[in-house]
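QA checklist item 7 of 12: single-chain prediction sanity check.
[x] sequence parsed
[x] length recorded as 141
[x] structure emitted
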Amino acid sequence: IPGYGDSPPVDMVVTAQGRRAFLDHVLQELNMRRPVLVSPSMSGRFALPFLLAHGDQLAGFVPIAPVGTKDYTAEQYQRVQTPTLILYGDSDTRLAPQALQNLQHLPEHRVAVLAGAGHACYLDKPEDFHRALLGFLRQLK
């Protein structure tokens, strides 16, 4: 969590640019090479700016009804070539439809909908979630 321990100060994550830099810093510190970024809900504020600026550093992207999708244009999404699995629960009628409407502009996307799952679909239907996630991971280069 920013601002605690040895993490960067809180003011670093106030802007999209700062959140992008923070996530970049975390991935560098962890020495991660071409990870798959899984982004549920509020983490979209970090993941989306990173995806749009550095998507080529990711092997894949898995947004799970992330916040902030409306902050970017269809044209910005269309420039991203990162393989993407848009995942959400069909009972999430508030955030998931908005996220899908925006994220469907990513050219390398596919969609997985978990029946009977809400916003935290990975908690509601963990087996279905893992099946969809593992299927996506197996198809990545």
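[x] summary fact logged: The radius of gyration is 15 Å.
[ ] second reviewer sign-off
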